[in-house]
Amino acid sequence: MPTEMSTPAAKPGSGFKPYIPASAHLPEMTARALIMGVLLGMVFGASSLYLVLKVGLTVSASIPVAVIAITLFRLGNKLGAKDATILENSITQTAGSAGESLAFGLGVTMPAILILGFDLEISRVMLVGCLGGLLGILLMIPMRRTMIVEKHDELKYPEGTACAEVLKAAATDSSREAAGEKNNPNAADDASKRAAIIFGGFGIGLLYKIANVALKGWKDTPEVVFGAPLKGGSLGAEVSPELLGVGYIIGPRIAAVMAAGGVMSYLLLIPMIKFFGDALSVPLAPGTKLISEMSSHDVRGAYILYIGAGAVAAGGLISLMRAMPTIWRSLSAGLSGLGKGAAAATAPLRTDQDIPMKWVVIGALAIIAVITFATPLHMNFLGALLILVFGFLFATVSSRLTGEIGSSSNPISGMTVATLLFTCLIFLIMGWTGGQYYVTALSVGAIVCIASSNAGTTSQDLKTGYIVGSTPRLQQYAILAGALSSALILGPILLKLNDSGTVYVPAAQVAPALQTDASKLTDTAQLQGPQADTDKGTYKVWHKNDNVGGPAGKYFVDNAGKAVYLVDPGINGAYNKRPDGTEVKKYDAPKAVLMSYIIKGILDRQLPWTLVLFGVMIALVLEMAGIPSLAFAVGVYLPLSSSAPLFVGGMIRWAVDRRNNKLEHNKHLSEEEKQAAGDRSSGVLLSSGYIAGGALAGIVIAFTAGILTDFDKKIGDWATANNPFFDGVNANALSMIPYALIIIALYWVAREKKTS
Fold first, then answer.
1. pLDDT value of position 653
2. DSSP letters of 705-740?
């Protein structure tokens, strides 16, 4: 069977040298580096949690944290403090990256608790965050040599590579001296040129994304929807600098395969569903409205997501089976040293030191034990075992996918869907149905989701460290500290966001005669938020699971059992006005809605297994044809607007490499040397800047959307009425003009000059 990438895998010690050699010993895991990383991780985690609740997406935090850390340490140096080394900056970005991945996992899964009719308990949310975050890191540690070292040339880890280039470009004199550049007369000029390209790209990416999205300068996702004969089909692209940069770094092969999956979804599957379904006079499950009334995005949400989830699950299993020999070698090498004394083994190089395997095993077993016996998780031994199995499976898949296509396009939610599919199917076979098992299944999915997300983030960080010459063991300690700290604050923030949007709807408005047996209710609660000022009473809590006499949901009832309030949550609630008429901002949590549908669909025997199996068959057919199924499956699952810009970046890389390889001074190089030269090129540096600038702009965008809401609305209203680049018949075409400018800039900078 062919491998998933055409580039040969690097062997350990195949000639790669980190920026800071293993023999150098610079300050690394200092108190200031770790504390700054932890604090920045909390900030980025909070903003990412807001984003995932609003739109189901987050922004990779590693590069923005690195840029901010470099800036703050330089500012401190001007005020008299010692400047930070490149290894200290690496530790800071490692610790700070955990918050974003935890926020994504929590925001994708935990709100489904509310949709399923249960409460967001602080103990449950914090346990899921802590246990999932720590487990993902521990599961990644044994795979470091396989994914990061052995496959260095194969798995690019675009954000990790970009982050390393940012750190190298900002290296201080002491770091450059440790890197052996002191006696190189051109070292300072080379470093200055690299820095100019990266930070030039950073400035372009930052200003472009802010002008595009925050200031509504032009349409951010131009799209064309087709009529017959491809009715329902569409082509769209997110014209963002960061996805363009990711596509350039991962190269044309994987970018094209991913885009092909998106083309299959949007130009084949969706038009086919519209063609065969338009004549139906009743909705086709799992859709809830007529196919003839559905847009292409509605069809994707109702049907294609299930097909994509099945394809991702099958492709992930196949990818894991392929990787098992190398993973097993790594595990065996680590486990073989468990019983040996310190003197029995040769001390590894500083850059090859991991947390000892015995502590990894003990830590993972301790986490599984806590999961098994933690009351808020409603867990049992089988659930804990499923977490271990699926956690290892999808941590591996996440790490590999992150290496191939980057964190921004890593379909963690697809892996979570696959986990819930398998978990709920097993529960159904066991006869475990009903409310309690909803929580158990969601706890399994949530912990695996966070573990997978954090495994991918950890992989990116370790790739960065591998390139710059960090000590893996210290990076692993740093991200463990960052994950634990972020998990402790994200739970309370999630609950506060929900409480701020909760509306207590008088039962007289929705179910005037609703009543229950109050003697069977044990939990009590009071109103929270602004409405608490008007009612200080204590009520019994009733979780109503049917629609008889009134809508299902959580009710406050009096001692006689009469319903007083319907508690409409801030996350995925239906009522956006309080009884006094004040407006309330709700959080849609789109991914959490999907998770709740999966759980109820299977345990209530209503899941569209046919669609899931269609996805499995797509993956199997591709593998039989010798095409890597996992990257293609990701393209099926993700919107075409996400994979199309990756394809554009990959095609620019193809054109640049094709031109550069024909130059006289490159003709004698082997294919491996040409690939390595392309990976070190100015194009990769500028792409790294694009990624960094676009990612950091995401924080500005989150701020304007979440805090400056009036400003954001006014800008949007003005742009809709007056800006033809943003809205109107020509907006799609006009928005390609600024995008074409950054494409041309990337191609121009990436071209090598002819040597005389």
1. 92
2. HHT-HHHHHHHHHHHHHH-TTTSSTTHHHHTHHHHH
